[in-house]
Amino acid sequence: MSNPVSDLVLGFQGLVSDVPEFVQPLIVALAGAVPFIEGEGAAAIGIIGGIHPVVAAIAGAVGNLICVAIVVLAAARVRTAVTTRRGAAAKPPTARREKFEKAYHRYGTPGVSLLGPLLLPTQFTAAALTSTGVPPLRVIAWQAAAIVLWTTVITLLITGVIRAVA
Fold it and tell me: Contact, 61 vs 147, CB < 8 A?
């Protein structure tokens, strides 16, 4: 049985190799917007597809960040609408919500943003942070830092592996 994420990755890799060079970074940026592929996965797709590592990393990170910013801004609007409509009455938190809030209180926005990609896509973490009331610009700034960090780390690792093997 095939894995949908690996099928998607292979599809993006095939697409990168099939389009003209000037379009390849756009494909990598689109891949970066996909949860579970993220900026770091998109950079890997681009590098393996033959794009210069710096171009692949920037394209993947930008695609991921644009998607995260859209999610954060949408989540902020939804939160405002729900809290305005609901007023002070709140429903009891779910177990998942309690787990997230415990991590948030332990690590704060920086910690959840920087460590979150180890467990969840940045889009999910960003939406969760925003839904708890963290200001959208703060969420976007810390998610941007996380995206740049993880995309850079993976880009350096993949580039090093490719150079070592070649």
Answer: yes
Task: Give the range of the structural domain holding residue 99, as residue numbers without chain letter.
Answer: 4-165
d(CA 153, CA 156): 5
Residue 1 tokens read as 């049985």
pLDDT of residue 123: 95
Residue partners of 9: CB distance under 8 A and separation at least 6: 31, 37, 41, 45
DSSP string, 9-52: HHHHHHHHHHS-GGGHHHHHHHHHTSTTTHHHHHHHHHHHTT--
* Neighbouring C-beta atoms of residue 66, cutoff 10 Å: 13
* Tens digits of residue pLDDT in 44-64: 999 988 899 999 999 999 999
Instruction: Enumerate helices (H) and strands (E) in the chain, giving the number of each.
Output: 7, 0
Q: Show the low-confidence residues of the chain (pLDDT under 70).
A: 1, 5, 86-91
CB 148 within 8 A of CB 96: no
Q: How many domains does the chain have?
A: 1
pTM: 0.85
What's the token pair of residue 21?
A: 């060079």
Output the six-digit token pair for 107: 């690590």
